[in-house]
Write a sequence for this structure.
């Protein structure tokens, strides 16, 4: 019998629908893989019974001849940023340890309604702050990949959706939810050789997702290929009246409209992304990407996004500012950790609780955010950053005058080793240099595997599209996927 | 603009994050590194540019004035670290 | 308006006052959540996951709250900002689950406006003054802490958390406790007319932050203090008195006023510094990234304007035009409750002057005796109109009307039914009246002789005797005429 864990979303959905196998068999197969991969530390909580329950419901529906949902029979991993009713949700932070939401996030509820089941809650960077999954209170997630040549160093799966990335790459789940604030879906997808899309800001409801930076946070799928991403995004997206920033638009049938024929499309290559000293492997992969898109019929044009250089610093003002306020609610009063030193008053309790509950990176970003919003600095930092952000969005607007899509690398390098960048926050932040501009502008952006580095590690190509043009992004992703022939997998060592 | 230890302590206080001397010392370097880096934004000519207010053109929808929520005290209190009957308990606040 | 001066050792001091009034917007649900905004309720029951600031919860604004703020702005001729947005005011306190209050700092929904106040509304010649309004913004209320339930803990009730407030910020245009009192009174009246706030200060639906500074008349503005959450008009006036006095004494003793928040203690008649809340006064306002800009279209604004009622000043002028005295018009319009009652009375066909006099003497007198408010009046406008009609069409006399009204108050019966049942219709039957007059004159020969001897003031005595004998039912005009004849 085929190993069901080799299958992706579409194959599982179709196999369950056709009766080739039962949803329960799929769930059990993935549960087995999850249980055997503890060393990767991809999950904070495993919920094998939930996966089986959902699968049983799908099997029963099928037996009863009821219509099946878009994700029927597909067990998935749920990033621990999504609040799941009755299942601990921590955002990988000590401060939320033991928190059992009494509600289900809109996106996860949409997925369950579509017939998906939950294998567990995936590890991540604490409060989604990080690019290597080294800030989790529950320990680092380890990438299933190793550098070639017998180098046994544990590698970062990227972040913040590192658990999602690692779990998919190691076939612990066929797909997982991610969230992307400044690259947190795309960069980990690139690091482990899978696909992931951050849709247009407002496509997926933020209701019930632990907030990091409200004006940037956006949920999206991570999966093995472009089609799987399209299917899962359809299930996740949709208007939600409970989120004021949700877009009141119907969800397109992205899967049905997938096409790798790019004739008539213009793809822009931003010259500012060709940084001095760009990694050779990255540059070569980018050139390959250009050739593949040309081959698919697209016209390639050089474009300019003049404010690119300022995207990262603007991001590191805006995101911490919003986070410093969003994370004020973790105060030890209504849920989560409370640290009450002897004789402490209310304000001391807050300070003790938050010092004990937040990890170092979270504390650092809260402090930066607090500083840039504080009296006398607000205009110089925050207002200036929001103006620069407007200019970055305008850069894209102008680019859309000459192209339909933009192609760039996802990250400036392949995965790095755990611990290699932890002592230098700035070098860690630079990982998101290519991912952040699209986040600031709220644009749909996707990473697809683009090849391997000299060391044999996956590299990702990023496609950025116009607002609401997820279809264009997915189609270009598909064109690359068909031509890249990326079949490499991490060799199983766990 | 660079921060010193007093400023770090002040920010920590505003953030309600307790820090000790050693941590404050360390944070001075880290924050200054990051702030020095973000200050390159000052180079950008933003004359006539309005700060971004909505990422994607969209405006606020308004809700109808109907009671649709609440009445869920058990859920609201379910995770309280110090539940006192039907209240949240906090260390006594002296005003 | 008034020359209010504080007498210090170094001479006279002038007080400068600005008020920030927090008014609860009348709505069913909260500003950003669907939980009930009703007063009271079991602790922590009017609380949604949004109000409790659970992770991932998001605000969605309530149209009615926005609408009421806009209508209020229109009622004070203020600038309405069709584009506004919400900001977060960040601070940590146990009554504030989010760690920030959603408010408006940079772009409030209502800009500058003004309110005209009359120092003594009962006196048409009383001085008037226009108080500038700086802005009205919409924001969330906080929860409640209880300190007396446990020896070492305070208890948190989030029921009020997220209830919609308007903060109405005046310019520092007031210079005496009386002006401030008149301003709050007038503001409350406008809010009640508009229907945007019930103005119930006891339940906390209106409370004022009182900004006070002192200066030598005409001199530079002094440093101000802000006394928070003063919850009655009397307390607002007292706060100003004691705080201004404190500042004058402080300065004259060589001290300096510190800009700070204070609270008023009505028992000790003093204000006290709230140092516990002073610490880290840096609210780090920034636009709330969970909310998009609030853009109001023409249709919305048009509806707000069209739904505004006639406001007190306009109503007063109209009443004066109907022949009411300036005093009466002022009394009738000062409170929305009175004006609306009076309007109902007119709508039932009552004649304005008669209705105004009756309402202000008879009804107010009765309610006063009963200790009831107009809302609780046992007699409604329709019943009152029926009574007044019986007087104006001559069915009963004014004095019988008083009796009938008493019975109405007691029994709730209708005026016509009472008149019918008790046979109180007045008579103009000259024969019957002449017969009674003859009896009266016969029974009082002494008075008759005195009257005829020139003591004409005894005429009233004979009228009284006749009316009494007729049990008040005789038409007074007819009695007068017949008596004059009989006594001639
Ligand atoms: Mg105030
Ligand atoms: Zn306020």
């Amino acid at each position: 019998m085929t190993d069901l864990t080799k299958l992706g979303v579409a194959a599982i959905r179709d196999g369950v629908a056709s009766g080739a196998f039962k949803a329960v068999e799929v769930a059990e197969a993935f549960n087995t893989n999850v249980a055997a991969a503890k060393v990767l530390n991809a999950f904070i909580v495993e919920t094998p019974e939930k996966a089986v329950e959902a699968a049983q419901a799908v099997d029963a529906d099928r037996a009863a001849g009821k219509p099946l949902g878009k994700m029927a029979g597909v067990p998935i991993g749920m990033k621990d940023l999504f609040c799941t009713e009755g299942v601990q949700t921590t955002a990988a932070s000590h401060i939320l340890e033991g928190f059992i939401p009494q509600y289900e996030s809109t996106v996860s509820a949409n997925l369950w309604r579509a017939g998906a089941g939950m294998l567990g809650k995936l590890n991540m960077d604490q409060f989604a702050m990080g690019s290597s999954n080294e800030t989790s209170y529950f320990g680092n997630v380890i990438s299933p990949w190793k550098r070639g040549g017998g180098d046994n160093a544990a590698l970062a799966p990227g972040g913040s959706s590192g658990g999602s990335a690692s779990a998919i790459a190691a076939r612990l789940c066929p797909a997982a939810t991610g969230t992307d604030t400044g690259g947190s879906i795309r960069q980990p997808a690139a690091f482990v050789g899978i696909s992931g899309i951050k849709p247009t800001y407002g496509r997926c409801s933020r209701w019930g997702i632990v907030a990091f930076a409200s004006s940037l946070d956006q949920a999206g799928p991570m999966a093995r290929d472009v089609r799987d991403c399209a299917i899962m995004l359809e299930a996740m997206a949709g208007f939600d009246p409970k989120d004021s920033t949700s877009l009141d638009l119907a969800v397109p049938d992205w899967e049905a409209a997938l096409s790798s024929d790019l004739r008539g499309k213009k793809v822009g290559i931003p010259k500012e992304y060709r940084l001095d000293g760009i990694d050779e492997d990255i540059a070569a992969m980018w050139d390959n990407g250009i050739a593949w898109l040309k081959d698919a019929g697209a016209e390639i044009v050089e474009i300019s996004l003049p404010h690119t250089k300022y995207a990262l610093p603007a991001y590191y003002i805006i995101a911490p500012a919003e986070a410093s306020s969003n994370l004020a609610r973790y105060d030890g009063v209504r849920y989560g950790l409370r640290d009450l030193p002897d004789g402490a008053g209310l304000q001391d309790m807050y300070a003790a609780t938050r010092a004990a509950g937040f990890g170092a990176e979270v504390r650092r970003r809260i402090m930066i955010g607090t500083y840039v919003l504080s009296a006398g600095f607000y205009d110089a930092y925050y207002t200036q950053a929001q103006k620069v952000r407007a200019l970055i969005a305008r850069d894209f607007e102008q680019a859309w005058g000459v192209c339909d899509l933009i192609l760039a690398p996802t990250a400036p390098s392949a995965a790095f080793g755990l611990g290699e960048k932890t002592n230098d926050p700035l070098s860690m932040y630079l990982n998101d240099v290519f991912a952040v501009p699209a986040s600031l502008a709220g644009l749909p952006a996707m990473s697809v595997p683009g090849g391997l580095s000299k060391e044999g590690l996956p590299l990702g190509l990023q496609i950025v599209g116009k607002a609401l043009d997820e279809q264009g992004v997915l189609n270009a992703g598909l064109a690359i996927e068909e031509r890249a022939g990326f079949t490499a997998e991490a060799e199983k060592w766990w | 603009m660079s921060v010193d230890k007093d400023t770090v302590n002040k920010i920590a206080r505003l953030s309600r994050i307790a820090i000790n001397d050693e941590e404050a010392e360390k944070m001075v370097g880290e924050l200054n590194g990051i702030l020095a880096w973000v200050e390159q934004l000052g180079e950008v000519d933003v004359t006539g540019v309005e700060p971004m207010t909505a990422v994607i053109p969209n405006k606020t929808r308004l809700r109808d004035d109907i009671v649709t929520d609440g009445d869920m005290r058990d859920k609201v209190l379910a995770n309280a670290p110090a539940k006192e009957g039907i209240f949240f308990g906090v260390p006594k606040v002296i005003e | 308006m008034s020359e209010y001066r504080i007498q210090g050792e170094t001479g006279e001091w002038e007080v400068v006052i600005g008020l920030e009034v927090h008014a609860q917007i009348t709505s069913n649900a909260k500003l950003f959540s669907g939980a009930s905004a009703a007063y009271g309720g079991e602790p922590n029951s009017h609380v949604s996951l949004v109000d409790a600031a659970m992770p991932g919860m998001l605000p969605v604004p309530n149209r009615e709250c926005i609408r009421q703020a806009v209508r209020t702005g229109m009622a004070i001729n203020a600038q309405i900002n069709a584009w506004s947005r919400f900001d977060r005011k960040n601070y940590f306190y146990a009554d504030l689950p989010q760690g920030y209050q959603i408010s408006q700092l940079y772009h409030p929904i209502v800009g500058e406006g003004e309110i005209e106040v009359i120092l003594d509304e009962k006196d048409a010649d009383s001085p008037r003054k226009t108080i500038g309004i700086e802005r009205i913004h919409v924001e969330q209320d906080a929860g409640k802490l209880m300190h007396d339930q446990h020896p070492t803990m305070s208890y948190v009730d989030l029921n009020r958390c997220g209830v919609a407030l308007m903060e109405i910020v005046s310019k520092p245009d007031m210079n005496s406790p009386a002006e401030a009192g008149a301003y709050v009174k007038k503001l409350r009246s406008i809010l009640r007319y508009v229907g945007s706030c019930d103005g119930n200060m006891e339940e906390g639906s209106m409370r004022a932050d009182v900004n006070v500074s002192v200066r030598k008349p005409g001199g530079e503005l002094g440093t101000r203090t802000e006394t928070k959450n003063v919850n009655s008009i009397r307390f607002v006036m007292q706060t100003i008195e004691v705080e201004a006095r404190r500042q004058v004494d402080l300065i004259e003793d060589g001290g300096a006023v510190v800009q700070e928040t204070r609270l008023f203690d009505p028992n000790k008649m003093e204000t006290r510094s709230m140092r516990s809340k002073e610490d880290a006064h840096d609210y780090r306002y920034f636009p709330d990234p969970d909310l998009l800009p609030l853009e109001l279209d023409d249709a919305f604004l048009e509806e707000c304007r069209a739904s505004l009622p006639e406001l007190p000043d306009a109503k007063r002028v109209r009443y004066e035009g109907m022949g009411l005295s300036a005093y009466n018009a002022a009394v009738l319009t000062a409170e929305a409750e009175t004006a609306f009652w009076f309007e109902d009375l007119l709508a039932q066909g009552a004649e304005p002057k008669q209705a105004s006099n009756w309402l202000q003497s008879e009804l107010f007198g009765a309610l006063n005796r009963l200790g009831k408010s107009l809302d609780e009046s046992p007699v409604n406008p329709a019943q009152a109109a029926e009574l007044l009609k019986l007087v104006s069409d001559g069915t009963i006399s004014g004095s019988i009307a008083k009796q009938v009204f008493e019975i109405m108050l007691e029994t709730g019966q209708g005026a016509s039914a009472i008149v019918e049942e008790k046979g109180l219709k007045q008579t103009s039957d000259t024969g019957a009246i002449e017969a009674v007059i003859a009896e009266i004159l016969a029974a009082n020969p002494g008075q008759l002789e005195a009257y005829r001897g020139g003591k004409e003031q005894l005429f009233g005595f004979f009228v009284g005797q006749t009316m009494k004998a007729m049990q008040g039912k005789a038409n007074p005009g007819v009695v007068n005429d017949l008596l004059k004849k009989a006594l001639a």
